[in-house]
Amino acid sequence: MKLIARAEQWPLAEVFTISRGSRTETELVTVELSDGELVGHGECMANPRYNETQEGVLATLNELDLASGLDQDCLQELLPAGAARNALDCALWDLEAKRSGMRVWEMAGLQPPGSVITAFTLSLDTPERMGALAKQHADRPLLKLKVTGEGDFERVAAVREGAPNARLIVDANEGWNADIVEPLSDQLRTLGVEMIEQPLPAEKDAVLADLVHPVPLCADESCHNSADLAQLKGRYEIVNIKLDKTGGLTEALKVKREAYNLGFRVMVGCMVATSLAMAPAHLVAQGAAYVDIDGPLLLARDRHFGLSYEGSRVEPPDTTLWG
Fold first, then answer.
1. What is the tens place of the pLDDT at every residue in 35-83?
2. Which of 40, 83, 196, 266 is 20 to 30 A from 223 via CA?
3. Range of the structural domain that residue 50 is part of
4. 307 near 286, Cβ under 8 Å?
5. What span, in angstroms and rounded, lies between the C-alpha atoms of 43 and 249?
């Protein structure tokens, strides 16, 4: 097999801000995996939160020796969970689908995928600006708000006023402290917030088991792969599956199965990336309680043959793109 990994920069439609900072572009890595005749494609985004860089992901992929071949099982041992393995795992699924003449969902033993409703993310900002943006997107059924702690009630109240009929979920990206979880959760419940994503830093979230939270909590930075699930019981009710955390579609499907077995509800999320990264996530998102694969909607442009977004409804990928 021949592997080609490339660095890409994609401009965002607007400045994107979360509790850890702001950016105007997203740095991606794409993989082409070829058997000499057919080519499989994959994409990932290195996440600095997990000490990943675009350069590091490229180096990891370019140092691999694939002379003896590759399959999903050996890949799980070859690379750790993370962005590099994600791009390669998804490219391998795509290549094997082309070799077999089957769709990836058939190869994985899944039902044919249907369309899903994605959340649309509102970047962290002042209450006034978030409220104005919510008004622009008031017709979207599900809005996800980036929050940070101080001023969050005012932010959510402004969004609720701007989009009175939208369902709301919030994402703190580890930006809260333990003292505000109980009171702020109760306040946000009165505004109709359905879920709070990762309120505390992952290394400090054990305390959540002892905190009252009338709004269900979702683990994001605390949940990478199936090995993390057991310790999250009692702390969270929902887990967010992202392929850049799980290290690809193979482990993502395993996390989903085991999460259901342990009684968790499932959210399927994404990094800010193109439709090539959203395509395998769309497959995992089937039947999920919450879907957040709006990455292409946050970009200034998407790939050719990208996913079809009709408002917040996302259709399955065409084989021209992936799978």
1. 999 999 999 999 999 999 999 999 999 999 887 788 899 999 999 999 9
2. 40
3. 2-103
4. no
5. 12
Question: Where a domain ends, among 79, 103, 127?
Answer: 103
Q: State residue 68's pLDDT score.
A: 77
| Percent share of the chain, pLDDT over 70 | 100
The count of structural domains within the chain is 2
Using DSSP, state whether 291 is helix, strand or coil. Answer: strand
Residue of 56, 66, 111 lying closest to 92 (CA atoms): 66
124 and 216 together in one domain? yes
pTM of the model: 0.96
Burial class (CB in 10 A: 0-12, 13-18, 19+), 254: middle
Residue at 95 is within a domain: yes
Contacts of 227 (CB under 8 A, 6+ apart): none
Q: Are strands 193-197 and 167-171 parallel, antiparallel or unpaired?
A: parallel
Residue 110 lies in a domain: no
Q: What is the dihedral of CA 7, 12, 17, 23, to 10 degrees?
A: 40
Active site amino acids: 146, 242
Query: What's the mean per-residue pLDDT of the chain?
Result: 97
Within this chain, do residues 8 and 87 fall inside the same structural domain, yes or no?
Answer: yes
> Tokens representing 163?
């989009």
* Separation of first and last alpha carbons in the chain: 18
- Give the CA-trace dihedral at 107, 284, 241, 182, to 10 degrees: -150
